[in-house]
Design goal:
Number of helices: 6
Structural class: alpha/beta
Largest sheet: 7 strands, parallel
Mean pLDDT: 97
Strand content: 15-25%
Radius of gyration: 16 Å
Helix content: 40-55%
Strand order of the largest sheet: 3-2-1-4-5-6-7
Shape: globular
Number of strands: 7
Distance between the termini: 38 Å
CATH superfamily: NAD(P)-binding Rossmann-like Domain
Number of domains: 1
CATH topology: Rossmann fold
């Protein structure tokens, strides 16, 4: 069975979503920018399901490195059935507060990395029969105290829309779960609950595909 690749396999949404799909029997490849983060995620997923779990270290802003890691992931689990782009640079700043270089660094993670990952994997997914290309969204409304994150999530939403137009007719379900508040275990924004939304998107029949779930509680 084709598997899941999570890019941005942090301890919250990334790991929870990997566990959720592993429970359905999908082998998993996890990518994060630090070895400790990858190791912790791999151990967490292996402890929850009896599927193959692989970890790879790469920074999404290092294009050769992330492309190489994705190639290793495909070699390990095959062309994925599901990809989740969950990488994000979360910071709180006012518009104009960051230098141009700092803003570009933030957008490199929140937007450009998603373009790189999708461009690298989507053609092969389509050629293999389709699947789901999923994104962790946020900031449904722009917030002055989180300017760079607002810009980044708006940009990522546009990336998903463009990918839907390009690859949707070819059988690739491109969709976003837009999370409206801070994710924390044991709250209404528990990552395990959010992981169920990604699983629901992947199960949708083609004639009922949604392009975005707005995850808002309260």
């Amino acid at each position: 069975m084709a598997g899941l690749i999570v890019v941005g396999a942090g301890p919250l949404i990334g790991t929870s979503t990997a566990r959720r799909f592993a429970a359905d029997g999908l082998p998993v490849a996890l990518v994060a920018r630090s070895e400790p983060t990858v190791r912790a995620a791999v151990e967490a997923v292996r402890g929850a399901a009896s599927v193959a779990v692989h970890g790879f270290v790469a920074d999404v802003t290092d294009e050769p490195a992330i492309r190489a890691a994705l190639d290793e992931a495909v070699a390990a689990i095959g062309v994925p059935e599901v990809v989740l782009y969950n990488a994000a640079h979360v910071r709180y700043d006012a518009l104009g507060e960051l230098s141009a270089a700092q803003l570009l660094d933030t957008l490199a993670v929140n937007v450009v990395g998603g373009v790189t990952v999708a461009g690298h994997l989507a053609p092969a997914m389509v050629a293999s029969g389709g699947g789901s290309l999923l994104f962790t969204g946020g900031m449904p409304e722009a917030k002055p105290g989180a300017a760079s994150l607002s810009l980044g999530k708006a940009g990522l939403r546009t990336v998903a829309e463009l990918l839907h137009e390009q690859y949707g007719p070819q059988g690739l379900h491109v969709a976003t779960v837009t999370v409206s508040d801070v994710v924390a275990p044991g709250t209404a924004y528990d990552p395990d609950i959010i992981a169920e939304e990604f699983a629901a998107l992947h199960r949708e029949p083609r004639d009922s595909w949604r392009r975005e779930i707005l995850f808002r509680r309260g």
